[in-house]
């Protein structure tokens, strides 16, 4: 290692930090197809930038064109034969059909929107045929890109909509439990709802993916190809590397930074974990601990502003709360979560007597900042524009422009000023090579942004199908009634049901899709029947939707961490689940102490914040059996009712619980001081 920056593995700079199935799919693609993918991806990114910053388009025009591009890319990138087998002649015949369907799905509405609107619900046979083709194309793209689980859920939703005495599948309605029964929909009515209306495929989820999310994913791609990932990791190691368990603490900080770029827990694990996990193992962390720490930390990136995956944008659209307010109220909860993970890794390091890395092995802060200051400028621009209430789509556009400008200025200054001072005079050939290199880097970022947007956009399209069915059948109200009935009106029990539902949905849906489906089903009950403020209800569901990243048996980020750590997936997932306990506790605290999100008198907000910090510290210490020194069994047991009391809505019980936990923590500190004196 050098003492300026840490050496990064080559895979960290892979164009997309892509999942294994996408990388292997690229490996079997003929070169002309890769050129076509690049051309379509770049064209899509340029189209999105044009509509975001120069000439905005109408709602349906934007969403339909976006869907056409996304489906076309999905069918090109992911072969019908799977990621490891070439398509062959028959495969290309099938592929030609789906590529045609992708084009028709998006651009039929784009070209004939005025005619469709003029028909006002009296759909033509062509409308229904095109809608059916689009639904099939979306489900097939989901099977290839997201996985079979989400496709099956989408198909079940469609079958449910058609079931009923007046539906296309009346016999299926006879098998429905009474509370889930409905009159059923015809094929024409269902297709009209899902393809020709505003509550299906082209509904709010795809609308958010086609505007805010894409621009921020593209912004992240520009930062990534210019080296921002390396900058954040170097900065994290410079800040924490010398402390006990330094690489694990660096993983927490770097993952928070990368979360504002990648928007994906798995991408975070691949990016930061490829470097931090081996160093954690080297310092003494068990492989399963190293993989679990990275998975839990990377999940924190999904709840860390400003990007929060796609969550902040979706929450803003669903609640009509300005995006910047979502960002602001999410800062403290994100700090609590990351702080809890940080505390866990610190306690593990202290228990094992670990030390930090040597100063000679670590980067120096001033050198890191000197090498990467250009990555801070776009973030400052982004925050400044958001604070001034500029549209997030336009903010993403200008943030991308700022990355291009500062990168070009940096490269130009090096070429014109620094290199001649080091004996490399400016020549026409060097200037030409620099310009071509810059253009190639821009093309790479434009391609990467479109590729990275495929998965979330396809997931949002299928989520739109599910949301459309919920609206058509009234399933949301039925689900709310079931939830109230099962919980007996108990809010804590209702939260447990939401948590279990999020885990089950997370086995088949990506985080964003799980949030969309769950908030449509349980959101009304939480806010209308249990009195949870609307914004907090959305935040709770969004946080709980993250648990599929770290909770066995389906822990996608945990599995990615296990692959890098060389540990067993289930053991690693259990560790990730332990370190990520803040995902469950912090949302519950939001519900019973809404002031932490909604605001209130200053003294009370501060008091509430201190209480939750005490509770989380006590919880982590009880789990690990260590804080300043080893904790006896009685203290660990006594912490549990104290933490539970802190999460009680009654202020007196809260205060009593906080005092109990604080007293135990102070006693542990006293015992550690006595032990130090006796050793001296």
Notes on the structure:
By secondary structure, the chain is mainly α. The longest helix has 46 residues, at 428-473. The chain has a domain at 600-680. 75% of the residues lie in helices and 0% in strands.
Structure summary:
The chain is mainly α. It is built from 30 helices and no strands. Helix 11 runs parallel beside helix 13 (about 285-300) and helix 13 (about 285-300) packs across helix 24.
Write the layout of secondary structure elements.
Layout: H1 20-27, H2 31-53, H3 59-77, H4 88-119, H5 125-145, H6 148-162, H7 170-173, H8 187-195, H9 204-225, H10 228-240, H11 246-262, H12 265-283, H13 287-300, H14 311-319, H15 323-351, H16 365-372, H17 376-387, H18 392-421, H19 428-473, H20 475-487, H21 491-506, H22 511-529, H23 534-544, H24 556-565, H25 569-579, H26 582-592, H27 595-598, H28 602-624, H29 633-646, H30 651-679
Helix pairs in contact: 2-3, 2-9, 2-19, 3-4, 3-9, 3-19, 4-5, 5-6, 5-8, 5-19, 6-19, 9-14, 9-18, 9-19, 10-11, 10-16, 11-12, 11-13, 11-15, 12-13, 12-24, 13-15, 13-24, 13-25, 14-15, 15-26, 15-28, 17-18, 18-19, 19-22, 20-21, 20-22, 21-22, 22-23, 23-26, 24-25, 28-29, 28-30, 29-30
């Amino acid at each position: 290692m050098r003492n300026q920056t840490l050496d990064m593995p080559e895979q960290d700079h892979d164009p997309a930090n892509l999942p294994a199935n996408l990388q292997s799919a690229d490996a079997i693609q003929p070169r002309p197809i890769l050129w076509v993918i690049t051309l379509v991806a770049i064209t899509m990114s340029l189209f999105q930038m044009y509509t975001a910053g120069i000439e905005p388009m109408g709602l349906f025009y934007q969403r339909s064109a976006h869907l056409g591009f996304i489906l076309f890319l999905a069918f090109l990138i992911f072969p019908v034969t799977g990621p490891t087998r070439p398509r062959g002649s028959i495969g290309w015949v099938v592929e030609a059909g789906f590529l045609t369907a992708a084009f028709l799905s998006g651009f039929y509405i784009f070209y004939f929107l005025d005619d469709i609107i003029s028909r006002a619900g009296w759909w033509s046979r062509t409308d229904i045929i095109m809608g059916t083709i689009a639904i099939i194309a979306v489900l097939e793209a989901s099977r290839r890109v997201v996985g079979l689980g989400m496709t099956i859920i989408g198909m079940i939703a469609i079958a449910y909509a058609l079931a009923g005495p007046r539906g296309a599948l009346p016999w299926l309605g006879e098998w429905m439990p009474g509370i889930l029964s409905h009159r059923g929909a015809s094929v024409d009515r269902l297709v009209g709802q899902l393809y020709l209306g505003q509550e299906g495929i082209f509904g709010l989820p795809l609308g958010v993916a086609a505007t805010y999310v894409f621009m921020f994913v593209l912004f992240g791609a520009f930062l990534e190809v210019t080296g921002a990932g390396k900058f954040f990791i170097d900065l994290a190691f410079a800040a924490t590397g010398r402390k006990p368990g330094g690489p694990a603490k660096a993983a927490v900080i770097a993952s928070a930074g990368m979360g504002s770029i990648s928007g994906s827990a798995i991408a975070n694990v691949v990016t930061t974990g490829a470097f931090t996990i081996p160093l954690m193992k080297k310092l003494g962390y068990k492989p399963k601990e190293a993989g679990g720490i990275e998975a839990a930390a990377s999940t924190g990136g999904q709840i860390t502003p400003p990007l929060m995956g796609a969550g902040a944008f979706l929450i803003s659209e669903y609640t009509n709360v300005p995006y910047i307010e979502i960002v602001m109220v999410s800062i403290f909860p994100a700090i609590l979560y990351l702080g809890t993970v940080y505390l866990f890794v610190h306690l593990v390091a202290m228990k094992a007597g670990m030390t930090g890395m040597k100063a000679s092995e670590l980067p120096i802060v001033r050198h890191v900042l000197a090498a990467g200051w250009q990555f801070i400028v776009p973030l400052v621009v982004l925050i400044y524009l958001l604070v001034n209430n500029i549209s997030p789509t336009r903010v993403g556009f200008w943030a991308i422009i700022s990355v291009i400008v500062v990168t070009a200025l940096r490269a130009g200054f090096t070429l014109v000023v620094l290199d001649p001072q080091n004996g490399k005079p400016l020549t026409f050939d060097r200037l030409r090579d620099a310009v071509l290199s810059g253009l190639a880097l821009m093309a790479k970022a434009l391609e990467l942004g479109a590729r990275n947007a495929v998965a979330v956009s396809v997931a949002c399209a299928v989520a739109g199908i599910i949301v459309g069915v919920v609206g058509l059948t009234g399933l949301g109200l039925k689900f709310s009634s079931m939830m109230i009935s099962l919980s007996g009106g108990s809010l804590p029990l209702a939260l447990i049901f939401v948590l279990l539902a999020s885990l089950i949905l997370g086995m088949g849906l990506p985080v964003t899709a799980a949030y969309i489906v769950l908030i449509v089903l349980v959101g009304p009950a939480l806010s209308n029947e249990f009195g949870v403020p609307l914004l907090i209800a959305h935040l709770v569901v969004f946080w709980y939707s993250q648990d599929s990243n770290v909770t066995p048996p389906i822990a996608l980020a945990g599995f990615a961490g296990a692959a890098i750590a060389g540990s067993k997936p289930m053991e690693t997932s259990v560790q990730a689940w332990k370190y990520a306990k803040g995902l469950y506790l912090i949302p519950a605290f939001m519900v019973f102490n809404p002031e932490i999100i909604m605001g209130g008198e200053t003294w009370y907000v501060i008091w509430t914040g201190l209480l939750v910090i005490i509770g989380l510290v006590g919880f982590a210490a009880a789990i690990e059996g260590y804080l300043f020194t080893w904790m006896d069994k009685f203290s660990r047991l006594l912490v549990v009712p104290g933490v539970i009391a802190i999460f009680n809505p009654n202020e007196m019980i809260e205060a009593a619980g906080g005092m109990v936990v604080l007293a135990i923590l102070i006693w542990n500190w006293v015992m550690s001081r006595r032990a130090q004196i006796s050793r001296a």
